[in-house]
Design goal:
The structure holds two protein chains of two kinds. Helix content of chain A is 68%, strand content 5%. Chain A is mostly helical. Chain B is of the alpha/beta class. Chain B has a six-stranded mixed β-sheet with strand order 6-7-8-3-9-10, sandwiched between helices. Chain B folds into two domains: 2-232, 3-Layer(aba) Sandwich (Rossmann fold); 236-266. The longest helix of chain B has 16 residues, at 168-183. Chain B has helices spanning 41-48, 71-77, 94-104, 109-122, 138-151, 168-183, 195-198, 218-222, 225-230, 237-247, 253-263; strands at 2-12, 15-25, 30-35, 56-61, 64-65, 78-81, 156-160, 187-192, 203-208, 211-217. The chains are: A mainly alpha, B alpha/beta.
């Protein structure tokens, strides 16, 4: 439970830390739009290289960024394989025939049995799964013993490969960009930045200050509520509920036994918090002064220009058909 | 400072929580409201700052009668430290939390920074200013809550069972701050069922089932065993010993004085 950390701030001192959160948010949006507008593999690869330079100059550990990519692993692999196997445009790059014979299938089944019993002890589960998957494919294409029931061919086309790489790089870029933002911006600053960036929405009567307050209180209570959830899990576990095992139906029951107390506690908490806030003269919608103030530096102007240049270049390139 | 007249309150009609409360608290006084669970003591504190609306009766704070128009002015004069340290910590850090009330009062930023420093120092939390709440103990969070209220320059602080969720060390510390603040002229209202906290105050009001059972000097109330038993409160140990001695006909004025002194180490 403790591992669920959404957008964790890691203290540091590079230029990315000194930038105004407003700049970071706006540049992030500009670069994301650019990433979506780019259509060629070479350009997106160039974008990733540029991003790497930013990471290095900004002294951000690549490991942290990779950790940010982890929840997306499944999506990445899925889109990658989908493109590779089902996109049949362009030239044929690679082909192989899988032969299904009793001997080959037997070995593969054994391999999967082995996988099933050992997977819990291996740290990189997804990687392990992929290795076994590729190994069984290779086995079927190379090894056949006895009569062959049927065969199937795997064909990889150049466009499929290109698209697979392209989509993967684009996802990596987008996630890395947002990871940079959350890694280098304190939640309070992020909140202030968001509030400032969302200010235009005031014209359509969205109360941005209240939204900012809601976001900041939610941020404040995430660790508290996680602690609470841990306590409830322990309390339920001591009464015989096992949260790690069980079938889907049992899992659902376990979630209910966690969610019901969590909801009740949260409502009680928010009621008390509302009292405490009111007792300290908080009136929703009334103007407040701010302890934290954002300062715009020359560096921010530079960063903003950088973002704008990239976006306009990408638009120009797209118009001339790159 | 606070005048409560004929105050009644009920959450549901027909089930009064407080009934005809009359209470007057002078400036600089330290009053304890003592009562068992469900005696209505926490409801009383919420009524004083207008978090709840009384059914009948009135609350006057420093000459202002509590109403829709005066409620904000009254909240500037009366601060509350609530029971659960976690549920009153609004800011993401200690600094932000002390600033919260000041931001609400639209204090200018420069002034705010100065006041945060001053009051964080007062409650000994200066080195924790950039810490997040989950890195603090319950006692430290309550100290931050006190600093937040002091920074707002209130005249009265209500401690609504503020020590009941703390460990003994945190509790002692908060009680020490109460004592110090009272000496500096802050009017203090403690709401508690802890006799050890009550013994330090000037006056004790015992609340039972929404009515005032007794309102007298601390020493007299604490020695009134019949009344305490009636409201399910226990006599402090040294005082129990003193009573036991008396019951057995043992007279020892020196020992009696010592026992009283040990229970109220002012």
């Amino acid at each position: 439970m403790k591992n669920i950390v959404i957008g964790r701030f890691i203290p540091g001192s590079s230029f990315l830390y000194k930038m105004d959160p407003r700049t970071k948010i706006i540049v992030l949006i500009l670069l994301m739009v650019s990433a979506f507008l780019v259509r060629s593999l070479s350009l997106i690869a160039f974008g990733l290289m540029l991003l790497m330079v930013v990471l290095i100059v900004g002294r951000i550990s690549v490991k942290r960024v990779l950790l940010g990519l982890r929840p997306l692993m499944f999506l990445l692999i899925f889109t990658f394989s989908f493109q590779i196997f089902f996109n049949t445009a362009g030239e044929l790059v690679f082909t192989t025939t899988l032969a299904y014979s009793p001997g080959g299938l037997g070995v593969v089944v054994l391999l999967w049995f082995f996988w099933w019993f050992t997977r819990r002890r291996i740290p990189f589960k997804l990687l392990y799964f992929l290795v076994v998957l590729i190994a069984s494919g290779t086995l079927l294409s190379l090894f056949s013993y006895g009569p062959i029931f049927t065969t199937s061919t795997i064909e990889v086309y150049s466009q499929g490969l290109e698209m697979a790489l392209f989509i993967m790089l684009r996802l990596v870029i987008i996630v890395t960009l947002s990871t940079i933002l959350t890694l280098t911006t304190k939640p309070t600053d992020l909140n202030l930045g968001l509030e400032a960036v969302l200010k235009p929405f005031k014209l359509i009567r969205v109360n941005t200050e209240e939204m900012a307050m809601i976001i900041s209180i939610s941020l404040r209570y995430i660790p508290t509520l996680l602690d609470e959830a841990n306590k409830i899990i322990l309390a339920q576990a001591s009464r015989g509920v096992d949260f790690s095992e069980g079938k889907l139906k049992e899992k659902l029951m376990q979630i209910v036994s966690l969610l019901v107390p969590m909801f009740i506690i949260s409502f009680k908490r928010s009621d008390e918090l509302a009292s405490a806030m009111e007792a300290r003269s908080f009136v929703p919608g009334r103007p407040r002064t701010r302890l934290h103030q954002l300062t715009w530096r020359p560096m921010d102007t530079v960063a903003l220009c950088f973002g704008l240049i990239i976006l306009s270049t990408v638009i120009v390139l797209r118009v001339i058909g790159w | 400072m606070i005048e409560i007249r004929d105050l009644s309150f009920e959450y549901q009609t027909g089930k009064p929580v407080l009934h005809d409360i009359n209470l007057s608290i002078k400036k600089g006084e330290w009053v304890t409201i003592l009562g068992h669970n469900g005696s209505g003591k926490s409801t009383l504190s919420k009524l004083i700052v207008g978090l709840l609306k009384p059914k009948t009766g009135s609350v006057v704070v420093d000459g202002l009668t509590l109403s829709h128009d005066t409620v904000h002015a009254i909240r500037r004069k009366v601060g509350i430290v609530f029971q659960n340290p976690d549920n009153q910590f609004v800011g993401v850090t200690v600094r932000d939390d002390i600033a919260f009330g000041l931001e609400n009062l639209q204090v200018p930023r420069e002034d705010m920074i100065e006041r945060i420093e001053r009051f964080a120092q007062k409650v000994g939390m200066t080195e924790f200013l950039n810490k997040e709440p989950h890195a603090l103990s319950g006692g430290q969070k309550q100290r931050v809550a006190i600093a937040g209220i002091l920074a707002m320059d209130t005249d009265v602080i209500i401690f609504d069972e503020a020590t009941s969720m703390l460990d003994p060390k945190g509790r002692r510390m908060i009680v020490d701050y109460m004592r110090q603040l009272n000496r500096e002229g802050v009017t203090i209202l403690t709401i508690t069922h802890d006799m050890k906290e009550a013994v330090l105050s000037d006056r004790i009001v015992i609340l039972k089932e929404g009515k005032i059972l007794l309102d007298d000097q601390a020493e007299l109330v604490l020695n009134n065993r019949d009344m305490l038993e009636q409201s399910n409160l226990e006599l402090l140990l040294p005082l129990r010993v003193r009573h036991a001695l008396k019951e057995r006909g043992l007279k020892h004025p020196e020992l009696e004085a010592l026992l009283w002194a040990s229970s109220s180490n002012k």
